[in-house]
Amino acid sequence: MTLLKVHKLVRHFPVSRGFGSSAIVRAVDGVDLEIAPGETLAIVGESGCGKSSLARCVAGLDTATSGKVEVEGTDSADMLTADPMRFRRSIQMVFQDPYSSVNPRRRIGEIIGDGLRLHKLVPRAQRAERVRELLEQVGLAADYADRYPHELSGGQRQRVSIARALAVNPRLIVCDEPVSALDVSVQAQVMNLLVRLQRDHGVAYLFISHDLALVRHIAHKVAVMYLGQVVESGDAAIFDQGFLHPYAQSLFDAAPRIGRPEGEEVELLEGDVPSPISPPSGCRFHTRCPQTIDRCKVEAPDLRPVAGRDVRCHRAEEMLARMMPPQAEAAFGTG
């Protein structure tokens, strides 16, 4: 069963370049993905790759230029027109900045209780009790309901945002870099909280991040984005097997991790991400790729199945043969 299906999603933004001229920012350029109930799909990439634009389209906060987002087989655009409250109950969002995503003039109990009130999920007399239950589920004391956001730390505010999303019993929560603004120790606490809530409530996550090392602890599936396109996707086993797309492997190698052999050389990416207004011809990564050949400069690769995952690279089979010994082929599904 598929909870969320995104088919050839495109999100372009027109921008003015002055003196009457304009251009198109290709933020998301033909993305396909699926999420099953109770599953976590992590979208990973550098800043500007289009992952937040994708998240906002999935959550119904932005309108796609073309393509479809389906929730349990129903087009989200039709659902937002015919029954927007049903759509909002199905998909909630936790934003990156816990300071700007809550109203500083309202008490925590009111912030969390809004969903209960708007969707008429709990009688007014029982609303305060339900808010206290939600606070306890995210690790906050019941008396936090009477506090204002400025009285809380960043991690506590993000817990409030999670409780607010959880209040309407959503099937999917879109997490747009929910821990990137938090201290490292607090990041671990919030990640553990998300894992526990998924186990207890069966909620699915679309988890947006720039940190591959972080998402490996929560994701069932991973999709790596570059300049508006998915360049590699597959099950979380990718982390142990190795990535085939040079960009995905570079992201993974650059992330600090325990157990890295002393003196191991890391091949870091050079250059800046090209402008999404005028992406390079051929493979969009060829201007920074250490494995570029002439074909990459003129022919755009398709996203195709290789060794149990989907890869957008002309040389994926070469990368596979280069990185693993013959006895490991069976683990990749090639033997």
Question: What attributes characterize this protein structure?
Answer:
335 residues; alpha/beta; Rossmann fold; eight-stranded mixed sheet; four-stranded antiparallel sheet; 32% helix
What's the layout of helices and strands?
Blueprint: E1 4-18, E2 21-35, E3 40-44, H1 51-58, E4 66-71, E5 74-75, H2 76-82, H3 84-90, E6 91-94, H4 108-118, H5 124-137, H6 154-166, E7 172-176, H7 184-201, E8 204-209, H8 212-215, E9 221-226, E10 229-235, H9 238-241, H10 246-254, H11 294-298, E11 304-306, E12 309-311, H12 316-323
Parallel strand pairs: 3-8, 3-9, 6-7, 7-8
Antiparallel strand pairs: 1-2, 1-4, 4-5, 9-10, 10-12, 11-12
What does this structure look like?
This protein has 335 residues and is α/β, with parallel strands linked by helices. It folds into two domains: 194 residues, 3-Layer(aba) Sandwich (Rossmann fold); 99 residues, no CATH class. The chain is 32% helix and 23% strand. The chain has twelve helices and twelve strands. The strands form two sheets. An eight-stranded mixed sheet has the order 6-7-8-3-9-10-12-11, sandwiched between helices. The chain has a four-stranded antiparallel sheet with strand order 2-1-4-5. A hairpin with a 2-residue loop joins strand 11 and strand 12. The chain starts with a strand and ends in a 12-residue tail after the last helix.
